[in-house]
Design brief:
The complex is a heterodimer of chains A (about 110) and B (about 110). Chain A is mainly beta. Chain A has no helices and eleven strands. In chain A, strands 2, 4, 5, 6, 9, 10 and 11 form a seven-stranded mixed beta sheet that branches. Chain A is globular, with a radius of gyration of 13 Å. Classes of the chains: A mainly beta (about 110), B mainly beta (about 110).
Chain lengths: ~110, ~110
């Protein structure tokens, strides 16, 4: 199984600020994804993080609000920009290995915006 | 990817089998059925997947009906640690890099 490290594990932020979440995997992966889970809700896919190119965003999510980087095959960041209380959620990184059809998930980042 | 329908919640007695149903009536021939679960405050965990035949691994069994319009995840001897939200997901095996679209899932409560 994958070892996925997400940092920070939780944070409390002020309205209008930005937070960058890091996702580090123990070995090279083909695909990396970012999900959001609002309180009491299921997971919603934000975007696919593409190595060396712009991320592919799902409907309802835009790059200005959720810029994503993926500089190599083991690391990605998600930034939540100009935060509001509605951004309070758990943000999860997930990965897929090229030879394995399973998705593995990190333990998530619990974000609270005041 | 086809849409799935699951009951919002279920209870199960500890030590008994937990049978979690999933309807996917619009499934196509190339779509697989995946099951994940999410224990409170953790990221989702893969359980099992299948196409047509029934599947079994160390965690669970997956029973898919002959017409493939529904399936059942079976936890043979549920324990308190199996209390979680269980997600049934249908997707093409090679769709768009393997992303998963989650529905609302079934919240399973295993009781002593």
């Amino acid at each position: 199984s994958a070892v996925i490290s997400q940092k920070p594990s939780r944070d409390i932020c002020q309205r209008g600020t930005s937070l960058t979440i890091q996702c580090q995997v123990d070995s090279q992966v083909t695909m990396m994804f970012w999900y959001r889970q609002q309180p009491g809700q299921s997971l919603t896919l934000i975007a696919t993080a593409n190595q060396g190119s712009e991320a592919t965003y799902e409907s309802g999510f835009v790059i200005d609000k959720f810029p994503i980087s993926r500089p190599n095959l083991t690391f990605s960041t998600l930034t939540v920009s100009n935060m509001s209380p509605e951004d309070s959620s758990i943000y999860l990184c997930s990965v897929r290995y090229s030879t394995n059809e399973k998705l593995f998930f990190g333990s998530g980042t619990q974000l609270s915006v005041l | 990817d086809a849409k799935t329908t699951q009951p919002p919640s279920m209870d199960c007695a500890e030590g008994r089998a937990a049978n979690l149903p999933c309807n996917h009536s619009t499934i196509s021939g190339n779509e697989y059925v995946y099951w994940y679960r999410q224990i409170h405050s953790q990221g989702p965990q893969y359980i099992i997947h299948g196409l047509k035949n029934n599947e079994t691994n160390e965690m669970a069994s997956l029973i898919i009906t002959e017409d493939r319009k529904s399936s059942t995840l079976i936890l043979p001897h549920a324990t308190l640690r199996d209390t979680a939200v269980y997600y049934c997901i249908v997707r093409f095996f090679y769709n768009q890099g393997g992303k998963l679209i989650f529905g609302q899932g079934t919240e399973l409560s295993v009781k002593p």
